[in-house]
Amino acid sequence: MKTIATIIIALAAMVATAAEKPRLDIYPISEERAVVALINTPSSKHEVTVKSESGKIVYYKQTLKNDGDYRKIFDFSALENGKYELSFKVDNYLVKRDIQIEKGTLKVGETEFRYDPFFRQEGDVLKLSYLNFDQNNLSLVFIKDREVVYSTTLGREFNTVRGFDLSKLERGNYQVVLADGSNDFYYTIEK
User: Could you tell me which residues are beta bridge partners of residue 126?
Assistant: First the structure.
């Protein structure tokens, strides 16, 4: 009976852990160095980016193999005082934290999540769903042969859900770009 109870508790813990959001931890170990750990992620490649407040990328690395958790010691001593964003792109989501470097001291902000938009083409309809966490002004552009054939603004709504009639487009391949001011997301449709 104890064995069955132990197995049930272990399985419940595994299911609970699997359903959790990934966790991005930053543990300062000195004034200039910190352990960065991304925990509870699916086994996939990660893109790690550190950007300055002005948007300049000061560090970028893509892991070469599929990996679950990521741990590395970062040396921030070469960075100037200021605010930076440390982010991990994994599959269809982004997890990020702001870090502040001030007079050799490292301050870490809260974890934030962002999810890629969902695109789906069903016949002559393109369906789009996007959680606009930053409530940036969204724009959508259709491009064919490097020329813009249609563009529209979608506003700043948090939950953006739209459908687009494709029936009047000429036959061919189109690249659809959803831009939120900080990121561009691409989707290809065939008419």
Answer: 121, 164
pLDDT in tens, 77-117: 889 999 999 999 888 889 999 999 988 788 899 999 999 99
User: Do residue 100 and residue 127 come from a single domain?
Assistant: no
Q: What is the side-by-side strand order in the sheet with 57-62?
A: 57-62, 46-52, 82-90, 93-102, 105-115
Coil, strand or helix at 2? helix
Q: Does some domain include residue 70? A: yes
Q: What CATH number did the domain enclosing 47 receive?
A: 2.60.40.3080
Least Cα distance to 48 among 58, 40, 39, 59 occurs for 59
Judge if 106 and 71 occupy the same domain.
Answer: yes
127 and 45 in a common domain = no
Contact call for residues 110 and 97 (beta carbons, < 8 A): yes
